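sanity check this record:

:::
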Amino acid sequence: MKFALPPAGALVPNNPHDPLPYYYRPLTGWLYRKRLQMGLDLVPARGEKVLEVGVGSGILVPTLSSRFATYVGVDLMLAAGLSRLVASGCRAEFVTGDILEAPTLPADTFDVVVCLSVLEHIADADAAAAALARALAKGGTLVAGYPMVNRVMTRFFRLLGFGDIDEHHVTKPRAIDKALRRVLLPGRRKALPFFAPVPLALYQCTAWTKA
C-alpha cells in the first residue's frame, strides 16, 4: 500500500505538538513520510476492518480508508474535518478516547490495527499492548511504529524545534517490544537505521499477530 500525502492545506493539526507541517518540508518531509510508508509496507493484503490508533491530523486517513471497507480512527483529540478525508465507499467512524480505557476499543473486531508514533508516548506499555491486542480479531495484525528514545533523539528533535520531546517520549523501543511480545506473536520488522543496527534505529515498524 502506497502512502498518499494529502495536498498541503487539506489537513488541520489536532494539537500544538502535531508534526503535520514537517511532512511538507524537504528533509523532514522525507523522514516523516518514510516512517509511514514503512508501516504501510507491513499491512497485510487481506482484511476488511482497520483501526488506526493515533489519528492526529488524519494524514493516514485517505490511504487507509481507500484500502479497507471499514475504518475506525481513535485519538485523545480529533482534528476538524476528518470525515471529508475518507475515501468513497468506506464506512468510517472517529472516536475521541484513551485506548487504556476498556470501552474505547471494541474487542476481537479488527483485521488490522495501525498504531504509529503512539506507544512511545504511553508510560504503561503493558496496558497499551493489551488494549491493542484485545481490539484485534483472531489472526489479525498489529502494525506498530516507534522511534528510538535517547539523548541522540532528543538532540534530533531539538533541531526540528521540539525542545521538550523528553516530556512526550517516555517509553523506549525495547520496553514496547517486550510488552507486545507478551500478548502477540512477532512478525516482520522494518527500520530506518541511524548508522547502527536495528536496536538503535532512528525509527522502526513492527508487525504482530494475534494467535
About this structure: The domain at 20-209 is CATH 3.40.50.150 (Rossmann fold). The two ends are 24 Å apart (CA to CA). The chain has five helices and seven strands.
